Amino acid sequence: MLVWLLVAMFVSGWLGCFARYAVDAETVKNTESVAKPLDWRALWSVFVLGAAAALVVPLFLSIGNNSIIEDILGPQTTGSVADEMLIVVGFCVLAGATAPTFIDSLAQKALSLAHKNAGKIEVLNEKADENLDLVTEQIEASDRSKPGAAPQAVKQPAELPNVGSDEKRVLAALNNAGFRRRSVSGIAKETHLGKNEVREILAHLIEAGHVSAMQSARTGVVLYELA
To answer: By the 8 A CB rule, do 181 and 225 touch?
Structure first.
């Protein structure tokens, strides 16, 4: 079925290109005294454009969430396959007839969709990283009850360094008795500060000797604790 589908698509694409060439040739004939003959260069461009337009029709259908190609290749009755083949053939004829414009507009649409998907993937990756940070915090907190584990050294407010308001919020999150060590995501969630801002504050606190950093042996997440 795949071979017949490809043959139908190529023939339809070429038919659309030839139809467009015929229309253009007729227009030229009506406006010029001598009509231009069909040379090999024009014939070759018709074949290339028709084939290219036909091959991108499945991409065009997939962008519109149309599963007609999958339906044709799947198990179906002869009648339903014939109906769907005629639809694809019609698309390929139209694609061939408007090949340059069709391919250019579809390329722009595909690139736009790819950029949107890249943004969604980035958001999903950030969410996955955040979940890993929070899970690592919970793992570290549960390890406190194991024999030999170092206890969390909770400090009184008067013992904390005299720093700015945002730094105090980060230090208070690190001083949370419910955790052994904290991650950037956990601190940001508790303090309602941005992650980049939390990273900058932690870097300043580490440089000042108030905070130390270590990497979790289980997950590889960088965790922070009061020095």
So the answer is: yes
Mean pLDDT within 52-56:
84
Mean pLDDT lowest among 17-26, 86-95, 198-207: 17-26
The pLDDT > 70 percentage for the chain reads 79
How far apart (Å, rounded) are the C-alpha atoms in residues 226 and 156? 12
Stated pTM of the model: 0.49
SS3 readout for the chain: CHHHHHHHHHHHHHHHHHHHHHHHHHHHHHHCCCCCCCCHHHHHHHHHHHHHHHHCHHHHHHHCCCCHHHHHHCCCCHHHHHHHHHHHHHHHHHHHHCHHHHHHHHHHHHHHHHHHHHHHHHHHHHHHHHHHHHHHHHHHHHHHHCCCCCCCCCCCHHHCCCCCHHHHHHHHHHCCCCCCCECHHHHHHHHCCCHHHHHHHHHHHHHCCCEEEEECCCCCCEEEEEC
Closest CA to 36 of 44, 26, 45: 26
- Kindly state the average pLDDT of the residues 137-162: 63
